[in-house]
Structure formats: C-alpha cells, structure tokens
Amino acid sequence: MPLPEPLRVSDGALVPLESLKPLEQLHLPPEFDGGSGTNRALGNRPQIAAQNDIDAIRAWLARFVDTKATFDTYRKESERLLLWSTTELRKPLSSLTHEDLLLYRRFLANPQPALRWVMTGRKVARADPSWRPFAGPLSPASERQAFVILNTLFAWLVNAGYLAGNPLSLSRQRARKAKPRVTRFLEDDLWQAVKTSIDAMPRDTAREQEHYARVRWLISLLYLMGLRISEVVSNPMGGFFRRRDRDGQDRWWLAITGKGDKERLLPATTELMAELSRYRRHHDLATLPYGGETTPLLLPIGGTHRTLTRGAVHLIVKQVFDNAIGHLQSTGEAHERASDRLRQASAHWLRHTAGSHMMDGQVDLRYVRDNLGHASLSTTSQYLHADDDDRHSATEAGLRLNW
Questions:
Q1: What share of the chain in percent tops pLDDT 90?
Q2: Residue 172 confidence (pLDDT) above 60
Q3: Does the pLDDT of residue 12 top 50, yes or no?
Q4: Which residues lie closer than 8 Å to 185 by C-beta, 6 or more apart?
Q5: How far is 400 from 20, CA to CA, in rounded Å?
Q6: Structural contact between residues 160 and 40, judged by C-beta atoms closer than 8 angstroms
Q7: Is the distance from CB of 295 to CB of 289 less than 8 angstroms?
Q8: Can you give the residue ranges of the Core-binding (CB) domain (predicted)?
Q9: Is the distance from CB of 158 to CB of 166 less than 8 angstroms?
Q10: Which pLDDT value is given to residue 365?
Q11: Can you give the pTM of this predicted structure?
Q12: Is the CB of residue 223 less than 8 Å from the CB of residue 198?
C-alpha cells in the first residue's frame, strides 16, 4: 500500500487524505518497512525471525494474545507509532531516534492533521474505511501510559536482537514515589447523586423495570466487588459459592478469573447477595446461583442469556453518570466541578471509590489489596481460612452500598 500523501490544496479545494490502515492491513514499501533501519541490530544473532518492523511488532504482540484487553492496548500504541513514523516522519520505526520520540509525544497531545488521524462520530470497526487511530488528543496520563508501553516494546526488541538500542532508554528516570491518594474516584456527593439518579429511573413498563434491575445490579457488582468491566463480562454466576466459616456461619464468596488470567476470591456480602437475588428474580432464575451455573453475571435486556460486550457495559455505566448529571441539574445542585467529574468518570472510578470507602471504613490494607486484586494471593492463603473469614467480616463491616 503506498503511503498517503499530505493534504493539498488544488484550485482552492481540499484534496481528501487517504485513510490510514490498521496494522493487520498495512503493507509498507521497502524504504519504510525497517528491513534496513538505522537502529537494526545487524550482525547479531536475533532471537526472532522478523525481517521488518511489522513482523517484529507482531512477534511482540503474540505474547499477549491470551489477554485481550492488554493485546488491544499494546497493539493500539505500537500501531500508532508505526503509522506516525512512516506517514509523518517518512522513516521506519527501526530508525527512530530519541529526538523523534520527543516529537511523537507532542503529536499525541494534538494528532494532526485530524482528518487523517482522528475518528469522527461513533467508533467503527478496524476494517471500516473511516477507521482512524485516535478518538482525540491524549491526556497527559494517557501520553505517559503510551510511552510506558512503547518502552516495553523497544526494550523487548533490543533483547530479541532486532534493534541495536532502545531510543526511549534515555528518557527513563527513577520513578517518582506514588502519591498516597487516588484521584479518580467519586466523592460522597457524586456517589450519592449516582445512587439517587438510579433510584429515580422510570419503571412503568416491563422493559424499564428490567433496565432498572440491570443497572442497579451492575453498579452493586462494580462497587461492592470492585470488579473491572472485563471481569463482569467474562465470569459466570456459577462462581458464587458458600463456605462455612470457623464459627459455623455460611458465607458467600465469588471466585473470578481476572486481569492476567489470575484467579481471586472475593467476599460476597449479605447486601450483595440480596441484590443478586433481586436481579435473578427479574430473569425468572432461582433466587441463588448453583455451582457450575453458566449464566453471565450481567444479562442483556430481552431474556437471552448471552454475554454482553465490554463496550456495551461501558455505555451503560456512562449513561448512569450522565443521568446523575441530569439529576443534579434538575435539583439545582449541579455546579461545574461536579458535572466535569461525572463526565470524566468511568466504570473504573467505581472500583477506586470502593477502595477509598474500604479504607475509610478501616478495612485492613491487606484485605483491600486482595479484594481489588492488586497482588496475587500468597501460596499460604489457601490454608489460612481464618484470614479469609476476617477479610469477609471486615469487608462486610467496612463497605456498604446502602441503596
């Protein structure tokens, strides 16, 4: 595929830019494919068979094919850099220098020309001719994340014997000590607005009732369990099970497979199990799940028991936040800060909100870590049932939704 020409003006009319192609459709001419890139580790013994930049990127991405969210994110960042390098700089990715990447960082903050780089309207499939690499300018946090991923790419290509050096290694600095607080969470007034707007949802028709039940259950699940959306859509209700504690009391748990295919065990509080039973009744299911049940944790409206996509769940959550903004405006309580915060919010904010509230509720930091899956359970934890019981009790006492 020939590279697209720059935007030109001919007889006063703009000549449309040829659209960029995603990685799986991209074919580069020899002068841009990296076969003779100036940063190639020629003469060494490479550990991968790649002879050009596209194949080298594919070899790197092959390590993540079993983790869809990671694969999609890593492909997006490597694809953007490859397209920018060959389209804007007119040089192979394997010829990029440290100075080139400083230019690329500025480009991420304002991808121009927008006609070539930025999506217009709704998101489209990668094979669609109107596909673009960007939805808009990247925030400073997203820029940093992009460069963390690209540094991983370059470092791996150096270790694989494909590149002679990592052009980003000069930018690496000692990591700053993390700030002792998370900023992407809902303050108490915003969290209350979210719950109140859900309670105010219309329930006149059967469909409205089903939609209300789904939203209420989803928010309960994201908050009380601290789940990621990927975990909501990929785990069944059969993960719920009962176990008798040291005092002879039955406690409910949820076993899930989460990020990186790691398994973790989450306390299912009495409040959550009540919400689950309430939701299941809307779908004419038994009040409590049974072992091995394949019913998805979240169901589409209409009675079918199929799995929702992550995109569909994201849209549901964003609508919840939009409704909360509308609720604040209708009561005269809205102001610019609250509206801006809710517009920025995502499902992951509920996870951070849960973590913040557990800390406020004096839940042991170790239990918060294990509930959110920030670290894998230690090998001995499977034998320390007393510790699990304490975690369940602490979560029950320190994290309440209070519809």
A1: 52
A2: no
A3: no
A4: 349, 352, 353, 355, 356
A5: 49
A6: no
A7: yes
A8: 51-158
A9: yes
A10: 59
A11: 0.53
A12: no
Percent composition of the chain: helix, strand, coil (DSSP 3-state, to 5): 50, 10, 40
List pLDDT tens digits, range 340-377. Answer: 888 888 888 887 777 777 766 666 656 666 666 655 43
Average pLDDT value for the chain? 83
Residues 343/325, Cβ–Cβ less than 8 Å: yes
Tell me if the bond preceding 180 is cis, omega within 30° of 0.
no
Residue 175 token pair: 């990591």
Beta-strand (E) ranges in 202-249? Answer: 240-244
* 188-398 under CATH 1.10.443.10, yes or no: yes
CA torsion through residues 65, 69, 75, 77, sign: negative
What is the residue extent of each domain of the chain? 19-171, 188-398
pLDDT tens digits along 189-228: 888 889 999 999 999 999 999 999 999 999 999 888 888 8
Q: Which two tokens stand for residue 24?
A: 């799986």
* Cβ neighbours of 169 (radius 10 Å): 12
DSSP 379: G
Q: Report the distance separating Cα 355 and Cα 76, nearest Å.
A: 29
Distance CA 398, CA 361 (A): 4
Go through 288-314 and write b for each residue having 16 or more CB atoms within 10 A of its CB, e for each that does not: ebeeeeebbbbbeeeeeeebbebeebe
Cβ neighbours around 235 below 10 Å, total: 20
How far is 270 from 250, CA to CA, in rounded Å? 11
DSSP code string of 324-353: HHHHHHHTT---HHHHHHHHH--HHHHHHH
pLDDT of residue 385: 39
